[in-house]
Write a structure and sequence with these properties.
By secondary structure, the protein is of the alpha+beta class. It contains five helices and three strands, in the order ααβααββα. Helices cover 57% and strands 14% of the residues. A hairpin with a 2-residue loop joins strand 2 and strand 3. The protein is elongated. It starts with a helix and ends in a 10-residue tail after the last helix.
C-alpha cells in the first residue's frame, strides 16, 4: 500500500463515526446495518453514507441479503494498513541533530 492510498484511508478514518464503525466491526464476523445503527444517534441515510465511504475505501465489504446490507471488515486491507504503520514504526531514527 502506498502513501497515497494511506492518505485516503486516513482521511476516511478521520471521521469519528467511521472510526467507531471500524471498532464495532472488528469484534464481529459480520453485522447488519440495522444492528450497527443501534450504536449511534444518527439516521439511517447518514449511516448509509458512512458505509459507502468505508466500502469505497476498501476497508469494509458489503453483502446484500434481501433489503439489508451486512458489513464486515476487509481483512486484507486492514492487514495492509496495520503493516504500513508497523513498518513506519520500525524505521531507524536518524542519529544526531540537524541543528548545531
Amino acid at each position: 500500500m502506498n502513501s497515497i492510498d494511506m492518505a485516503v484511508i486516513c482521511k476516511v478514518l478521520g471521521d469519528q463515526n467511521r472510526l467507531q464503525i471500524i471498532e464495532i466491526l472488528a469484534g464481529q464476523d459480520e453485522m447488519c446495518a440495522c444492528n450497527l445503527l443501534e450504536y449511534f444517534e444518527i439516521t439511517q441515510p447518514t449511516l448509509s453514507h458512512h458505509m459507502k465511504v468505508l466500502n469505497e475505501s476498501g476497508l469494509v465489504e458489503t453483502r446484500k441479503e434481501g433489503k439489508w446490507n451486512h458489513y464486515s471488515l476487509n481483512q486484507e486491507v486492514m492487514g495492509q494498513v496495520i503493516g504500513y504503520f508497523t513498518e513506519i514504526g520500525k524505521q531507524d531514527k536518524q542519529k544526531g541533530s540537524c541543528c548545531k
